């Protein structure tokens, strides 16, 4: 598990100290500043779609309680609703004149002015320290919706696009979202219960198959009202309804994506700190890093030794790539280094003829990684290089986890 509040973590302070030094390569400084910002706030899950597409109900489902609206109540008109952590349940209402006011309780309980432009719900739910939700309604002209979506996508870490049928107009809007964001996005086909009653769900899914598979991490038919009932109606969760409503799978996959995003930020921050930390911070870093580890076992198994060798390789290459970013960042060179590294890793693991499950898992990871890197090389460019480095860091994390088990 990652730290629920990375902004309070030693890593955040160490990265801040690292970035306050003179003479840091400009690329690394910019990269580090972006990481600091991301570590400083919860992962942003944006829930986007047309009014009445079921966005608020999806957020209620993820929260496991009806916070934004009650079932069957008229949709809240505000274009932006934020749901984040706070020590007690209270809402902030912003009206068109820019004034804001605070009220205790939840949106579902409050009488809201019809002209609110932004609503913020704070809840004492500690899960919201790790990720928060933003509901964005696309209720303007095609051009306004395009602009709203682009702006929202820039700030989003994960996107849930809510729609009953994902119409061609919505498909055209979505097509303009940057690919890097599409890789972290889910298509939620809301009101699936109605589609099932009409007998239209199968043909809807078949019709979307090609386009949606390319444009999203996955397509998730969801009967959100049933999914909320599954969690709230009885003393315990109705596992069967939670599963059949589509709620279980969507909630699980979204949370996994949130975790992956956070883990990747933490990995990258660790890498920057290791490479550039000032002397004092470097010593602190080593202390905090080594403190919680158990005393080393008297003898390492051959499998551990092999996995340590692969970790050293990944670490050395990560440093090499950071050094390469000192000049003009060269995405192609970084992609090539990542590819070499993964191939070398496969070769080392294969040559060892070690059949331990951890080694096999590392080999599977390296071979899958090679396939993904081929795709990154086709895409090229800065985003692809960042994806490639992230992939190496993920491999490193998986191998390290296996050693510590
Ligand atoms: N039958 C059914 N109704 C739903 C479902 N999800 C939402 N609704 C209803 O659709 C209406 C609009 O939902 P809401 O979440 O407010 O939409 P939003 O405007 O996109 O936030 C509400 O009356 C919800 O109760 C669903 O999965 N099945
Ligand atoms: Mg709503």
Percent helix among the residues? 55-70%
Bound molecules: guanosine-5'-diphosphate, magnesium ion
Shape: globular
Quantity of strands, as a count: 9
CATH class of the largest domain: Alpha Beta
Q: Output the CATH homologous superfamily of the largest domain.
A: P-loop containing nucleotide triphosphate hydrolases
Query: What is the makeup of the main sheet?
Result: 9 strands, mixed
Average pLDDT reading: 85
Poorly predicted runs are 280-298
**Count of discrete structural domains:** 2
CATH architecture of the largest domain: 3-Layer(aba) Sandwich
Number of helices: 16
Structural class: alpha/beta
Radius of gyration from the alpha-carbon trace, in angstroms = 23 Å
As laid out across the biggest beta sheet, the strand order is 4-3-5-2-6-1-7-8-9
What string gives the helices and strands in order? HHEHEEEEEHEHHEHHEHHHHHHHH
Indicate the proportion of strand residues.
Answer: 5-15%
Describe the structure.
With 405 residues, this protein is α/β, with parallel strands linked by helices. It folds into two domains: 43-259, P-loop containing nucleotide triphosphate hydrolases (Rossmann fold, 3-Layer(aba) Sandwich), CATH 3.40.50.300; 294-405, Up-down Bundle (Four Helix Bundle (Hemerythrin (Met), subunit A)), CATH 1.20.120. The protein is built from 16 helices and nine strands. It has helices at residues 10-19, 26-39, 55-63, 142-155, 168-175, 179-182, 192-198, 201-215, 224-232, 239-244, 247-276, 279-290, 302-324, 331-352, 357-379, 381-404; strands at residues 43-49, 80-85, 90-94, 100-104, 118-123, 131-137, 158-163, 185-189, 218-221. The protein has a nine-stranded mixed sheet with strand order 4-3-5-2-6-1-7-8-9, with helices on both faces. Helix 1 (10-19) crosses helix 11. The longest helix has 30 residues, at 247-276. It starts with 9 loop residues before the first helix and ends with a helix. Guanosine-5'-diphosphate is lined by residues 49, 51-57, 69, 71-72, 75, 190-191, 193-194, 223-225.
